[in-house]
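During the no-cost extension, the postdoctoral fellow (Dr. R.K.) reprocessed legacy sequence entries with the updated structure-token encoder. One reprocessed record is reproduced below for audit purposes.
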Amino acid sequence: MRAFFVVVCLALSVPAAVSFAAGSGGTGSSETGSSSKYQTGSKGAYQSGAKGKTGKTGKTGKTGKTGAHGATGATGATGATGATGATGATGATGATGAPGISAVRVVNGASLTLLSGQFGSPPNATCPAGHTAVGTGFYTDGGNADFVLNFNSFVGGFFTNDTSGTIEVDVQATCAALPAGASISSRTRSSEIVTYLADVAAATKTAEAAGLKPAR
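Re-encoded structure tokens follow.
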């Protein structure tokens, strides 16, 4: 009777998967039941829902840092010429200029006769006092005028006759009156004469080298 009571109590307190059998001497044995088998079910189908409404525009972000300077661009084409500007105002009247030539006269020097193969300088054409030479001139009916120059107060020249005949030569000065109170200084006149004589000496040397003789 006692052994039966123990079996009944165990049967009520253990899972159904375990079975008991009374053994000899009251000792019971047990067996574990096999695990149940299981399978994963198939994946359920799904569909995308409808597109939601566009959200509100976000706040403006902070201003970014200034970027590096870009390379210099190519030179642009020249622009069209602008319109002509308006005429400027009339300028102030300039100062009065120095007095001009108040009187002009022509002075002819005396003639010089040159035989064939001769050279020489005719008398100078000298301007009157208070006048200065502003132009030169000469006359010859043959040969060569080696020089005819203005020496301020007079005009001088040098001629050679390389023809077979006789020629007549002279020089001419165009003289203008100096401004009131003006004059040619004696120092200037002396310097002019020295220059003239040097020119004559040089021309004489050239003529003599060519075999010509001075006029008598």
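Residues 1-35 have pLDDT under 50 and may be disordered. The first helix runs from residue 2 to 13. The remaining legacy entries will be reprocessed before the final report is submitted.
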